[in-house]
Amino acid sequence: MNIQIYGKSKCFDTKKAQRYFKERGIKFQEIDLLRFGMSRGELASVKRAVGGIKALIDPKSKDYDRSYVGYLASEENIEDKLMEYPSLFRTPIVRNGKQATVGYCPEIWASWE
What is the pTM of this model? Predict the structure, then answer.
């Protein structure tokens, strides 16, 4: 397994995801979305795995209203906003190769083991 956890340092669900993998002795790579963001290639891979760009957006984000992402129709424009405002991502985003989840999903992670 090659687990990557994209999250925010103050996100409670990100901390729960990290604890889930630590408790099971599964090594993972931790990536701070606010500091490092996500490349377009990684975004495309995650988007395919979770069923579209809308699943990645956090409507409770402080930048949701400021970015006007809720009013954008084109996926390309939404991707541009996610690159500009990484705080718009719903976290944690957990990747295992071509598989990915958004949010705290231990029932899916258990099937990866």
Answer: 0.88
Segments forming the whole domain that contains residue 40: 3-57+89-112
Using the Cα atoms of residue 52, residue 97, residue 19 and residue 9 in order, give the sign of their dihedral: negative
pLDDT number for residue 77:
80
Domain count, the chain: 1
Burial class (CB in 10 A: 0-12, 13-18, 19+), 92: buried
Kindly state the percentage of the chain with pLDDT values over 90.
Answer: 51
109 within 8 A of 101, measured Cβ to Cβ: yes
Nearest Cα residue to 56 out of 41, 75, 73: 75
